[in-house]
């Protein structure tokens, strides 16, 4: 096999490997981005639940002590 043909084939193989590596990297970046977005939404929802629970507890204390001015 002549050296030119071998060099050409090696270049083609390198290009294919590089393309596959870039595709896998992009897929991993997308997966990481999706996971981060999902985690952010979960934390926001948990924060809203904590705030609602705290507000309910505060209202219960106000009602129990007669300090609720809304009634």
Automatic annotation (TrEMBL):
InterPro entries per UniProt: LEA1/2/D7/KIN2
Low complexity bias locations: 9-20
Region of interest (Disordered), ranges: 1-24
Superkingdom of source: Eukaryota
Stated name of the protein: Stress-induced protein KIN2-like
Species the sequence originates in: Flemingia macrophylla
